[in-house]
Amino acid sequence: MISSMNKRQIGLVIIALAVVLFLVTLSLTLYTNSLNKILHQSCNLPAEVCPFNKAVPNQSIIGFTIVALFVILGIYLVLQKEPKLKEVKLAGNVRPKNGRDASNSKPKISPQDLKELKSEEKKILGLVTDEGAIFQAALVEKSGLSKVKVTRILDTLEGKGFIERKRL
Asked: Could you report the per-residue pLDDT of 44-95, keeping only the tens digit for each?
């Protein structure tokens, strides 16, 4: 995943590159056509078989095809929607270590409930507790677990009342 530029910006850059490439291809095509007209005048072959008597050179057709592919790719990237991020917050029953207050009126979870959690669940809960609120993608990155595994653990923790997830 590219972090400094989003897909829309990359698409716009590709479209701009395609416009420049189109202008270069068009100018080379016009130049080649003017040269071909001059060469055709000195050619002894009939117009039907003369290699210089073409409307558009093969190289130009290839160039315009590449430009069209760039434009299609750019439009696809511009119109593609960004994935929605899921934010994970504490449910208010566990106090974050960084001092932020996760305000909620749910009852406190006893230490006995924390002991019943599996090690991976404790790891995820610890990461959420450290941050107070964290995006699910960041949890996947920091925990080293798969996206599916993190989602299932978050489902379990949310069901037990430890965390609260919000869709952004």
From this structure: 777 777 777 777 788 889 999 999 999 999 999 988 877 666 666 655 545 4
What is the CATH T-level fold of the domain 86-167, as seen in this structure?
A: Arc Repressor Mutant, subunit A (1.10.10)
pLDDT at 111: 64
Per-residue pLDDT at 97: 44
Name the residue ranges covered by the structural domains of the chain: 7-79, 86-167
Three-class SS of the chain: CCCCCCHHHHHHHHHHHHHHHHHHHHHHHHHHHHHHHHHHHCCCCCCCCCCCCCCCCHHHHHHHHHHHHHHHHHHHHHHCCCCCCEEEEECCCCCCCCCCCCCCCCCCCCHHHHHCCCHHHHHHHHHHHHHCEEEHHHHHHHHCCCHHHHHHHHHHHHHCCCEEEEEC
